[in-house]
Write a structure and sequence with these properties.
Helix content is 27%, strand content 21%. It is of the alpha+beta class. It has a 7-stranded antiparallel sheet, sandwiched between helices. It has a 6-stranded antiparallel sheet with strand order 12-17-18-19-20-21, covered by helices on one side.
């Protein structure tokens, strides 16, 4: 089914924009502009502006469904679903469709942790092992002078390993939290350990959030889903949200299925994430906007449903850049915004909010490549609703010389991202004086440009490679993050 038809299946929920006399028609016009004039997250300086429709971008990146909720003047302005819950179906995404929030679970969970701090049940700066009964974080040379604390766990500055979690297939055995932390079967991630001095630098760790989850449960004696319901979800009115892993049968019909980068549905519809605080929330964009608005209202001293003004202010204060106590932070003063993204198997999502301006949005998708889609949506929303300092990255390109060009063109076998990955190759070609890159299914053919610092970037989706050269300036290989990619048949 073509994406343009999927968009026609969208179910719309429109609310008048707060503080404005805009009619439903004018809101409809705004949505039309947003979904027809999306731009890449990276733009080339001096190049003509490129526009994409949401339908085209969803089709290009094999994302069956998208849901958006927009905040304006501190209130939900509109929410709308696009596409379908499952590829090939006619089951439309609506504003009430559930998605996995992935790592957006972290700042929502941090809200409950901070509430427990306010109640005197936890402390941000006490060594974390004080609160752990059934498992202890091993001490080593890195913890001799600096402790791991809740403040450092929630701001990703505890020096821990284990960045994220792949989840567990529907037919797989699910480990306990203690097994996850120990890296013991059936856990599919490494044991948690401190790998650098706590407090020394920012290092993202979903494993650290899982330690926080255990501390919360063992301190209160309450199951984590019930704890989150009592401290955060119910007080805020997040009625379509639950930390349920696996998702209850009663809610399964409301949920969008996850899809891989080829648009194929994840086996069993989705993975299970026992790492509840780090990745276990099922929710809607509308409910995420309720959370964002509540944090801003608390910071402004207008609400105490969850946190006090003092604690909400600390939550939105940089601890170790770019993190506050849960959310990531950007800008300052009235232009301050807090945000967080998330990627679970088959899902990508994002929430951003400017608390002083009352502007922001939550976007959820049911595709592995959904981050490309939501970044383009964010660009369009920022332009339409005048979000300060929130715009596409501008780059200056250089033309590769003939020798570099010849060295770049060819086939590059890509390193496996997981043991179950299908072998794939990226192909760099030259067409009409432009460098093009393509990797069957997951990376559609697109122009890739060269920067002066030897970075190669696809402006449309942000895919990035780095040139590695020998002492004579010849390209020896490409680098994808920490992975080495060598051209075939060199």
């Amino acid at each position: 089914m073509q994406a343009s038809r999927l968009l026609r299946l969208a179910t719309l929920m429109l609310l008048p924009i707060a503080g404005a006399s805009a009619s439903a028609q004018s809101v409809d016009e705004q949505i039309s502009r947003i979904t027809s004039t999306m731009t890449p997250s990276i733009v080339v300086k001096g190049a003509p502006e490129k526009y994409h429709t949401l339908a085209d971008t969803m089709a290009k990146y094999n994302v069956p469904g998208v849901s958006i909720a927009l905040i304006h003047d501190g209130k939900l302005a509109w929410a709308q679903g696009f596409g379908v819950k499952t590829a090939g179906s006619k089951d439309a995404v609506t504003s009430n469709t559930l998605f996995q929030a992935a790592s957006i679970s972290k700042p929502v969970s941090a809200t409950a942790m901070l509430k427990l701090v306010e109640q005197g049940k936890l402390s941000l700066d006490t060594p974390i092992n004080t609160y752990l009964k059934t498992w202890q974080l091993p001490d080593n040379e890195f913890t001799k002078t600096e402790p791991v604390t809740l403040r450092r766990l929630v701001s990703h500055s505890a020096g821990l390993n284990v960045h994220g979690f792949p989840g567990y297939a529907s037919d797989a055995k699910v480990p306990t939290v203690q097994q996850i932390l120990d890296g013991k079967a059936p856990a599919n991630t490494k044991a948690l350990q401190v790998v650098m001095t706590p407090g020394s630098t920012w290092r993202y760790s979903g494993g650290g959030t899982t330690i926080m989850q255990l501390a919360m449960v063992e301190t209160t004696g309450e199951a984590f889903p019930a704890l989150m319901q009592r401290l955060v979800l119910d007080p805020i009115g997040m009625q379509n949200s639950a930390f349920e892993q696996p998702l209850s049968k009663a809610k399964q019909d409301l949920a969008a299925a996850g899809h891989d980068d080829q648009g194929k549905m994840v086996g069993g519809r989705w993975h299970t994430y026992p790492e509840l605080a780090a990745a276990g929330l099922w929710t809607t964009p509308t409910d995420l906007t309720k959370w964002a608005i509540e944090i801003a209202e608390a910071r402004a001293g207008k609400s105490t449903k969850t946190l006090s003004q003092k604690m909400a202010t600390e939550m939105l204060t940089v601890q170790k850049a770019p993190s506050g106590l849960g959310p990531a932070l950007g800008n300052a003063g009235d232009a301050l915004y807090f945000q967080h993204g998330g990627s679970n198997e088959g899902y990508s999502c994002f929430v951003a909010y400017f608390p002083a301006l009352g502007r922001g949005a939550a976007i959820m998708t049911n595709g592995d490549a959904g981050s490309v889609v939501y970044r383009q949506i964010l660009n369009a929303l920022a332009k339409e609703y005048q979000w300060p300092g929130y715009k596409a990255r501008e780059i200056e390109t250089v033309a590769p010389d003939a020798s570099t060009l010849a060295q770049l063109v060819g086939e590059y076998p890509l390193p496996a991202m997981s043991p179950n990955d299908t072998p794939r190759s990226a192909f760099i070609t030259q067409e009409n004086g432009k460098l093009m890159i393509e990797a069957a299914q997951f990376l559609a053919k697109d122009e890739i440009v060269l920067l002066a610092n030897d970075e190669l970037i696809v402006p449309d989706n942000g895919f990035q490679l780095k040139l590695a050269r020998d002492k004579d300036g010849r390209v020896t290989h490409l680098e994808f993050g920490s992975r080495k990619i060598v051209k075939k048949n060199r």
